[in-house]
Amino acid sequence: MYTFAECRNLGDDFHHKVQEIIVSTLENVAKESQLENLPQDVKMLVTDKENVMHALDSNHKHHLGTLNDREQKLLTSVSSWKIAFFKEVHDKITQQNHMRISDIHRYADFLREQLEGFQ
């Protein structure tokens, strides 16, 4: 199972590999001058390296943000669960202690009555 830090590292590695592929592809297309065979919208995409890289970076930041949000939600949820769990345990132990103290008082009262009966 991956931790969130490992997932972020895998995301970073993926981002860098995709970035290398995009840069290489854009350079190859520019070198080979295959632009005349491409539709106009694709030409704009492959000739505007800055916008492509900006879109890639924005996508990567969005994925990291999503991962960070999920991590934060999980941590908040676990923290809330932990607080509720320990409160429940504390309340149960407190109730048990009160019952034991009541039992001790009843037993002490019983012994007192027994002693008074012998006198």
UniProtKB/TrEMBL annotation:
This is Uncharacterized protein. It comes from Oryzias javanicus (Javanese ricefish). The lineage of its organism: Eukaryota, Metazoa, Chordata, Craniata, Vertebrata.
